[in-house]
Amino acid sequence: MNVWIAIAATAVGCYLAKVLGLSVPAGVLERPLVRRLAALIPVALLAALTAQQTFGDGAAVMVDAKAAGLAAAAGALLLRAPFLLVVGVAVLVTAAVRALG
Question: Measured between alpha carbons, how far is 68 from 98 in angstroms, rounded to an integer?
Fold first, then answer.
């Protein structure tokens, strides 16, 4: 039963967040600061999620094959490789490090 309460609370929270976002006046959304924040917040959230999934292991920091794959992907991005190649390099390096270690 607790799962359904959590699902209902999440649904209500999502709906209220949507209504709150739609009720913001257009003048507020046109401000330069708000525009810059709206452009940068998704990037920051994605970076935080990537870091947490790569280096997080409960309460400890863990460096393993995922970190090597992330480093390889970063290197491929610096070389301006296409996105699919970046993903492929990360997958191959992660698999190789796991197979070797």
Answer: 10
pLDDT tens, position by position, 45-62: 999 999 999 998 888 888
Q: How far apart are CA 87 and CA 40, in angstroms?
A: 23
Taking only the tens place, the pLDDT of each residue in 53-101 is 999 888 888 899 999 999 999 999 999 999 999 999 999 999 999 999 8
Dihedral through CA 16, CA 19, CA 21, CA 24, nearest 10? Answer: -130
Q: 60: part of which helix (H) or strand (E)?
A: strand 60-61
CB 63 within 8 A of CB 55: yes
